[in-house]
Design brief:
Number of strands: 9
Shape: globular
Length: 102
């Protein structure tokens, strides 16, 4: 499943360091659980701003959820994620202006 994940300006999220192009999965013995254990993301890029500020410093990446997925509202969680590429502010602005974010 394709999605969008927000990060701090240094590409961290909850004290975990990410890199574009890398794949991450839960450690052996860890169990996927929404808001407790897993890699969180949204299916809609606009929804990430319900969890992160729209302050010009938040980074957004296009991701691929490769493992099991749980959903709660607009938030998804997976046990295996690949960070594909940065979703630029210009791309986000174009989506907003075009109204193609639903």
């Amino acid at each position: 499943m394709k999605g969008y994940k927000a990060f701090n300006k240094d590409w961290t999220c909850r004290d975990f360091q990410y890199e574009i192009g890398k794949t991450y999965e839960l450690a052996e013995g860890e169990k996927l659980k929404m808001c407790k254990c897993g890699f969180h993301f949204c299916a809609n890029p606009i929804d990430v701003f319900g969890y992160y500020p729209m302050d010009g410093e938040t980074k957004i990446a296009v991701i691929e959820a490769l493992g099991n997925i749980e959903q709660e509202g607009t938030k998804f969680c997976t046990d295996k994620i690949r960070i594909i590429k940065e979703f630029t502010p210009e791309q986000l602005q174009a989506l907003i202006l075009d109204g193609n974010y639903n």
